[in-house]
Write a structure and sequence with these properties.
alpha+beta, three-stranded antiparallel sheet, three-stranded mixed sheet
Length: about 170
């Protein structure tokens, strides 16, 4: 579904640094597994969220002059509380139209459209989920939303808070 809509799938490392692991989390606030004998300090924690790896991929690409990105990753996350399948999407730069002169910057509503398409694809109709302003401090308060099914938080999407990049 996402590839057909122009996004590129990535596959990132499961092992990340302790700083990356603590940088941003949506669901799991607990510490992940720590490798007893890591090869390097940059690969000593089993990630507890996909976002740190996705953000590192975006930062790497931007540093190498690849500024227009539409990426996603679907991967299982293994934590002390169990194994869960996560989806993470990153949009950066401009969305290309048929010709370059038709390009425009990605915005919140592009991401919202992808999220709604995924929710519908897995069988959730509009009446089965609820969208509310996000409470996650790592996301911009006016450009982010949480997704609830019943009372359960099942997703967060939106723009990262500007202070997130100041902390890095």
């Amino acid at each position: 579904l996402l590839v057909s809509r122009g996004l590129d799938e990535i596959l990132s490392f499961t092992l990340i640094s302790e700083k990356e692991d603590a940088s941003i989390r949506v669901f799991n606030k607990n510490e992940g597994f720590k490798i007893i004998n890591p090869m390097t300090k940059d690969h000593e924690i089993v990630r507890s969220d996909l976002l740190p790896s996705l953000i590192a991929t975006v930062d790497y690409n931007k540093a190498h002059q690849n500024k227009n990105l539409a990426l996603f990753e679907i991967s299982p996350i293994d934590t002390p509380k169990g194994n869960h399948l996560y989806l993470s999407i990153a949009l950066c730069g401009e969305k290309m139209g048929r010709d370059e002169y038709m390009s425009r910057p990605y915005d919140f509503f592009d991401l919202k459209g992808y999220v709604y398409a995924v929710l519908r694809k897995i069988g959730l109709t509009d009446s089965r989920f609820r969208i509310a302003y996000s409470k996650n401090e790592k996301f911009h308060p006016n450009c982010s939303a949480d997704i609830f099914v019943g009372k359960d938080l099942v997703g967060t999407f939106g723009q990262l808070h500007p202070s997130f990049y100041e902390d890095k």
